[in-house]
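User: Here's a structure from my thesis project, written as structure tokens. My advisor, Dr. K., wants to see whether a designed sequence matches the one we expressed. Can you design one independently, without my sequence as a hint?
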């Protein structure tokens, strides 16, 4: 049955492409029969300095049209003769300009600037005007199309999120090949990774500003998600080599509108939502937007509950025709039951979906508040400036049993098999984050050579205050029979309030960087992207240790840590574009990872430098209706920090390290997206990755790194009857689709070691560490939607095949994926 479903889905994927190919051929034949034709070329700019890629340029009274590139340049084929060119954009005053098209010639259209203006629209139907390779991303900072960037870039728009009824960031990531959830430690976050490297908080951005990914971000407020795969160190400094992602929230608009909605689903899920926007009063200078949600749910997991409150206000100030200021706020409160899953005994998963091993009063309470101001200005026809200032506060309080790591017996024949001693833990963490960025971009020429130039600088600071309590025994239970009475541990505490302070760590990380990057158009078909960044980082921290439970002295000991790192991050890429809709590229980039350890002389280790090589091809096919990109990469960390193994004559009491290990990641990715065509739209992709130790004194050469799937594949196929054949009748408002996602084999547990790290000698009977093989799985979701005037109803059935697999961290956080579940969303457009 499963393979039949796979076959049907693949067949459905290529059906629209065949239709597109036939349509493309018919269009060329029709144009040939019409006789003489020419081309109109020019450049459109927006008075407020915004990107012109959402402007429409078309011949009035005909179906011919196009959209400019990010810098406003366009070309449009048209029959010879006089025409009226209609240039329009949402929120801007449209202009009509007569133009004469001459047979076989390119007519240069005079430069045109659109001014901000009021537009009242009763209904907007979005059909998609830009292909995946033509939609510029704010994440890349340069005002260029992804087709000109020698790096894999994927953007997922709001229309896709609404079709698929995305609830979490993991739902959005299923549309991007090679980006996956590697774990869900405690069930309070989604740990994201790509190309074998984890996305830390340094790799995740909201509106271009880093956010702490220890909390699940709210998806209902998103306008789009941008993913820049591979190294982004030249733009953002200390980021992991796998890539970066940026979630862009909804922005203010001058036309009034909005929506209210309610989503309900399995396991007691309830989520009301609202979104309103418009001009402030009758102003054409100030606009606002306010959206928010409340969420409450139980879970398919016993005892687990959650509730969330989210508010996202924003204001747009049109300071001048060329300058705008966007001020955004963001507040999220997330309270939920921490849940480390079902447990593993002797590296064997104890299969279950519902088993809960935490205490019933465990809580993880998080609040995240942020404010961002973005100033954009077009200084001239050549220069633009963008300045960003941001602040974020993150507060987390955790009360939980420790992870289920120690069982009294590992043999099923033992009467104590499955017995678990539970300790209690408690932490309180506060983080204040400040950032400032300044980017200056220019589009200019030096002789016959074109340049798209970026000059930038950024600085940020983290102030952290992390308090931990002394973990103490609480009780014992049997995971297979929680009601079984067991002997309680000696000196057990009665609850979380009995725990005493252990350590308080005060950190004050400061970072700064300066970078320059230039996209050089050498000749018509060849472009070079070159640049370099210099980064500086300070990571001072003071660790205060409180007296132990048995200590009689009230003294507090202090350990001071000081680190100062700097690194250069170069980037070089070559693009060859045999035609304007296709590009072949190769690139080299370098990133760095600070190390926290010390060497044999007790000196701080320098950062590890990571080299990344990437080649690929990007294609816009069928006049941009279909984008298909293929990328291959190799990432080498040839100086990974690893512990120096002790010997009988050279002990290692300080766990000194050296830059002697090597990890290599290699693989390929395929991303395919279509624009809507006759009601059809689809997204599909595939990735292969192999990340392993290629040199180590502790692990066997070729040992795979944990959590990274060897294969992933995705397919989303939707049909809108109103945009297809059924343009009248009750079918006009109907849409339907399926989304599928495959995650291949992964490894968790702990990497087996060659020698004992405490004495440097081989194990007598082998290492106790073992891998856990994680089952692959195939998720299939089905969606159905119906629009009637201002009312919309969407239904979704997730995990139709009721697949069972797990997200793991080591062997002590084994979290099952959700079973088959249902949700429905009813909304009303204001």
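Assistant: Designed independently from the structure alone:
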């Amino acid at each position: 049955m499963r393979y039949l479903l796979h076959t049907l889905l693949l067949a459905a994927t290529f059906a629209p492409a065949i239709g597109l190919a036939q349509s493309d051929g018919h269009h060329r034949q029709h144009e040939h029969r019409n006789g003489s034709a020419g081309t109109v070329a020019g450049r459109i700019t927006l008075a407020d300095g915004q990107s012109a890629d959402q402007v429409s340029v078309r011949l009035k009274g005909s179906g011919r049209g196009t959209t400019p590139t990010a810098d406003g340049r366009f070309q449009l084929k048209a029959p010879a003769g006089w025409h009226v060119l209609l240039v329009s954009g949402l929120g801007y005053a449209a202009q009509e300009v007569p133009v004469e098209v001459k047979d076989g010639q390119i007519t240069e259209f005079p430069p045109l600037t659109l001014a901000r203006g009021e537009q009242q629209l009763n209904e907007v139907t979005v059909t998609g005007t830009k292909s995946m390779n033509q939609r510029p991303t704010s994440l890349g900072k340069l005002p260029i199309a992804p087709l000109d960037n020698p790096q894999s870039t994927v953007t997922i728009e709001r229309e896709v999120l609404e079709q698929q009824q995305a609830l979490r960031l993991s739902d959005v990531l299923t549309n991007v090949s090679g980006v996956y959830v590697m774990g869900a430690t405690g069930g309070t976050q989604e740990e994201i990774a790509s190309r074998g490297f984890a996305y830390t908080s340094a790799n995740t951005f909201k509106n271009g500003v880093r956010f702490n990914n220890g909390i699940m971000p709210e998806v209902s407020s998103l306008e789009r998600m941008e993913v820049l795969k591979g190294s982004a160190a030249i733009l953002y400094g200390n980021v992991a080599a796998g890539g970066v992602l940026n979630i862009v929230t909804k922005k203010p608009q001058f036309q009034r509108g909005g929506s209210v909605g309610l989503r309900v689903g399995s396991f007691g899920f309830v989520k009301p939502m609202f979104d309103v926007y418009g001009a402030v009063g009758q102003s054409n200078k100030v606009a606002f937007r306010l959206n928010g949600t409340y969420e409450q749910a139980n879970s398919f997991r016993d005892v687990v509950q959650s509730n969330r409150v989210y508010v996202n206000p924003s204001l747009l100030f049109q300071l001048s025709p060329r300058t705008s200021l966007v001020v955004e706020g963001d507040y999220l409160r997330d309270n939920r039951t921490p849940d480390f899953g079902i447990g593993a005994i002797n590296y064997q998963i104890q299969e279950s979906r519902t088993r809960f091993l935490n205490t019933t009063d465990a809580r993880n309470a998080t609040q995240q508040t942020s404010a961002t101001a973005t100033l954009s200005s077009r200084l001239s026809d050549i220069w633009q400036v963008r300045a960003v200032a941001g602040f974020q506060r993150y507060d987390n309080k955790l009360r939980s049993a420790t992870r289920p790591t120690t069982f009294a017996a590992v043999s099923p024949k033992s009467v104590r098999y499955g017995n678990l001693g539970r300790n209690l833990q408690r932490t309180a963490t506060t983080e204040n984050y400040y950032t400032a960025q300044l980017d200056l971009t220019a589009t200019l020429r030096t002789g016959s050579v074109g340049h798209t130039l970026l000059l930038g600088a950024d600085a940020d600071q983290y102030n952290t205050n992390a308090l931990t309590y002394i973990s103490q025994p609480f009780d014992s239970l049997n995971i297979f029979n929680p009601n079984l009475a067991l002997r309680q541990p000696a000196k057990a505490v009665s609850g979380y309030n009995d725990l005493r302070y252990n350590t308080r760590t005060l950190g004050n990380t400061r970072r700064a960087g300066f970078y320059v990057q230039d996209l050089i158009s050498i000749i018509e078909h060849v472009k070079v992207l070159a640049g370099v960044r210099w980064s500086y980082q300070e990571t001072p921290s003071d660790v205060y240790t409180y007296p132990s439970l048995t200590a009689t002295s009230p003294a507090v000991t202090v350990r001071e840590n000081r680190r100062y790192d700097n690194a250069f991050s170069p980037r070089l890429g070559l693009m060859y574009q045999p035609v304007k809709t296709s590009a072949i590229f190769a690139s080299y980039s370098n990133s760095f990872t600070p190390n926290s350890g010390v060497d044999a002389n007790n000196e701080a280790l320098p950062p590890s430098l990571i080299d990344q090589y990437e080649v690929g091809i990007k294609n816009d096919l069928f006049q941009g209706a279909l984008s298909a990109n293929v990328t291959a990469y190799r990432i080498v960390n040839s100086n990974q920090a690893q512990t120096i193994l002790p010997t009988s004559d050279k002990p290692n009491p300080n766990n000194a390290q050296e830059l002697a290990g090597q990890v290599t990641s290699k693989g390929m990715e395929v991303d395919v997206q279509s624009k809507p065509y006759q009601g059809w739209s689809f997204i599909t992709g595939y990735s292969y990755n192999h990340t392993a130790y290629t040199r180590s004194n502790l692990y066997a050469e070729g040992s795979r790194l944990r959590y990274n799937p060897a294969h992933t594949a995705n397919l989303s196929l939707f049909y809108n009857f109103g945009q297809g054949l059924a343009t009248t009748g009750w079918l006009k408002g109907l849409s339907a689709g399926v989304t599928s996602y495959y995650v291949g084999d992964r490894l968790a547990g702990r990497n087996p070691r060659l020698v004992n790290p405490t004495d440097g000698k081989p194990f007598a009977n082998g290492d106790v560490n073992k891998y856990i093989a994680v089952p692959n799985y195939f998720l299939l979701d089905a969606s159905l939607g119906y629009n009637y005037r201002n009312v919309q109803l969407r239904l979704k059935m997730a995990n139709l095949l009721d697949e069972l697999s797990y997200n793991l961290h080591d062997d002590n956080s084994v979290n099952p994926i959700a079973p088959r579940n249902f949700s429905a969303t009813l909304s009303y457009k204001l």
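When you compare it with your expressed construct, this may help: Helices lie at 2-33, 158-164, 169-173, 233-236.
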